[in-house]
Write a structure and sequence with these properties.
By secondary structure, the protein is mainly alpha-helical. Helices cover 67% and strands 6% of the residues. Strands 1-2-3 form a 3-stranded mixed β-sheet. A 3-stranded mixed β-sheet has the order 4-5-6. The protein is elongated and about 90 Å long. It is found in: Cell membrane; Membrane. Keywords: CBS domain, Cell membrane, Magnesium, Membrane, Metal-binding, Transmembrane, Transmembrane helix, Transport.
């Protein structure tokens, strides 16, 4: 049997599904999806033309539809909600897990959210309102209240009986949380520990009392890093009174890490995503978000023009100097972008700590000297070959050395400064560093040339 990658299988299913839907062969389409994983079904439906997505979704059984809906992209979820009858929507949204429902509601217009909330049962409405009541991008907003909790005075036999009766209603049963009468978190044990324990042992005698947890207001990125650090499947969330209110599971963490990484990459490129899918955002909104950064960079770049204008007499006397300006500012911008990128990524992954700032900047300064020395030597030889003027070549080479050191120091130091100011280091992105180095690089170059050439 020929083996295929996951992507190849998804593409094959999507193509076959689209053909069957175009032929209106709904029985064939339904049979095609029977052996397919739910996540792949969602991927296939999401890849269909918008007009046929709702029809394909209706081919699923009620149980499959509820689970597949949670895997769908938010934009596809919104499309389906608009196409469905009220009863269809109510059943799907009612049976979604509270954290997935809250995430969906974050993407929907307020008017639609109010209507859907009114249709929920009181219990599900309260669970959803609880999550929506916490600040966005916090543990409280992304947690699920569907967890297993027990009292420490019951036996392992009693605990297993309770788990059997509640397992289908809980997000995960791999961890069991122990609480007191006030619902305060007192311990934790794994399902493995419970199974291996003697029938007469109490939960209190086998549980771990040293529990790692997060608070409802903990930033979601910190939650993700904690789960990643400890290799947890889930982590408990407590409120200000240490009461257990929910758990965050590893599948949510994967989504968070992807989201945060995407945001950082956008910021590094000087693009604000606004938390939306860039490629599904209205073009006017895209232009509005991008033009802000570009206007800032445009205004900043005007300083470069001012420096060149101020040193116009130098360039008029030695026109050859003009030819090397793009080379110098381009190299300086690239060196600064490299330094800022590695430092910003290191801060985000916690490979670099704020107290290491001086060591990191010193290390990057040395790297800048080495890079400048190597590149400067090559440039001196190249400039002399092109212009035949040793002093011009020397001015270019020494300027490149100075610019590389400046770019390395500024590119590594500014993210730390932004972090100390409580700002996202990713804002100190490559375009900003490049522009700043452009201005200072030209200033250094023309003044060094004036000095070396005796102008």
């Amino acid at each position: 049997m020929q083996s295929r990658t996951r992507q190849e299988l998804q593409d094959l299913v999507r193509q076959q599904l689209q053909v069957l839907m175009e032929q209106k062969n709904y029985q064939g389409a339904k049979a095609l999806l029977v052996p397919v994983q739910l996540a792949d079904i969602a991927e296939s439906i999401g890849g269909l033309p918008e007009a046929t997505q709702a029809i394909a979704f209706r081919l699923l059984s009620k149980e499959e539809a509820i689970e597949v809906f949670e895997y769908l992209d938010p934009s596809v979820q919104q499309t389906l909600i608009e196409d469905f009858k009220r009863q269809d929507v109510q059943e799907i949204v009612e049976n979604m897990s509270p954290d997935d429902r809250a995430r969906l509601f974050d993407e929907l217009p307020a008017k639609v959210v109010r209507r859907l909330l009114q249709q929920l049962s009181p219990a599900e409405r309260d669970a959803t309102a609880l999550l929506l009541g916490y600040a966005p991008n916090t543990a409280g907003r992304i947690m699920t209240p569907e967890y297993l909790s027990l009292k420490e005075n019951i036996t392992t036999t009693q605990a297993l009986e309770q788990i059997r009766s509640l397992a289908n209603l809980r997000e995960t049963i791999y961890y069991i949380y122990v609480t007191d009468d006030a619902r305060r978190l007192t311990g934790i044990l794994s399902l493995r520990d419970l199974i291996l324990a003697q029938p007469h042992q109490t939960i209190g005698s086998i549980m771990t009392r040293d529990v790692v947890f997060v608070h409802t207001d903990t930033d979601q990125e910190e939650v993700a890093r904690t789960i990643q650090h400890y290799d947890f499947v889930a982590i408990p969330v407590v409120d200000a009174e240490q009461r257990l209110v929910g758990i965050v599971t590893v599948d949510d963490v994967l989504d968070i890490l992807e989201q945060e990484t995407t945001e950082d990459i956008y910021k590094l490129g000087g693009v604000e995503s606004g938390g939306d899918n860039y490629f599904q955002t209205n073009l006017f909104t895209v232009a509005r978000r991008r033009v802000v950064w570009l206007l800032i960079l445009l205004i900043t770049n005007s300083a470069t023009a001012a420096v060149i204008t101020n040193q116009e007499n130098v360039l008029q006397k030695v026109v050859a100097l003009t030819a090397f300006i793009p080379l110098l500012i381009g190299t300086g911008g690239n060196v600064g972008a490299q330094s800022s990128t590695v430092v910003i990524r290191g801060l985000n992954t916690e490979d670099v700590r704020p107290h290491q700032a001086l060591d990191i900047v010193r290390r990057e300064a040395i790297a800048g000297i080495l890079l400048g020395a190597m590149l400067g030597t090559v440039v001196i030889l190249w400039a002399y070959f092109l212009q035949g003027n040793f002093f011009v070549a020397l001015a270019v080479g020494l300027s490149l050395l100075s610019i590389c050191v400046l770019a390395s120091v500024s590119g590594s130091a500014l993210p730390f400064i932004f972090r100390a100011m409580g700002l996202d280091p990713a804002l100190m992105s490559a375009p900003f560093i490049t522009t700043a180095v452009d201005v200072l690089g030209v200033l250094i170059y023309l003044n060094l040339a004036r000095l070396i050439l005796g102008l």
